[in-house]
Write a structure and sequence with these properties.
2 helices, NE0471 N-terminal domain-like, 6 strands, binds zinc ion, three-stranded antiparallel β-sheet, mainly beta
Length: 113
């Protein structure tokens, strides 16, 4: 989804072990495969700061990686600590919205339950 001005997450939840749900203030019910979020980590360890190239090798990320804690960062994002110990990634609301894989956001059918 494209994030409109002033729209923020109002609640985070989980739908089974592998799906993170994000409720947005405009009523959008976002869904994310948690491993896809881990693979999309925007931190300097996972993305080359200069080239923007993703340096994280998906083969090194466990299939069952899970968030262990999610903390708000200011008024613009969240920081996720993962079960593999990685905790440096900050996902801005805009990034989260872009990564949303709920059915309306993904023509090919969305995140399975
Ligand atoms: Zn990272
Ligand atoms: Zn969505």
């Amino acid at each position: 989804m494209e994030l409109r001005d002033g729209v923020v997450p109002t609640g985070l939840g989980q739908d089974g072990p592998s799906v993170l749900t994000v409720r947005w203030s405009d009523g959008h019910e976002g869904r994310h495969r948690v491993r896809d979020l881990r693979l999309a980590c925007p931190c300097a360890q996972c993305v080359d700061e200069w080239t923007g190239e993703r340096t994280l090798d998906p083969a090194t990320v466990a299939e069952d990686v899970r968030p262990v804690s999610i903390d708000p960062v200011g008024r613009y994002g969240i920081q996720i600590e993962w079960s593999d110990g990685h905790a440096t990634g900050i996902y801005t609301f805009e990034t989260l919205a872009t990564l949303c894989s709920c059915a309306p956001c993904t023509p090919e059918g969305g995140t399975p339950a």
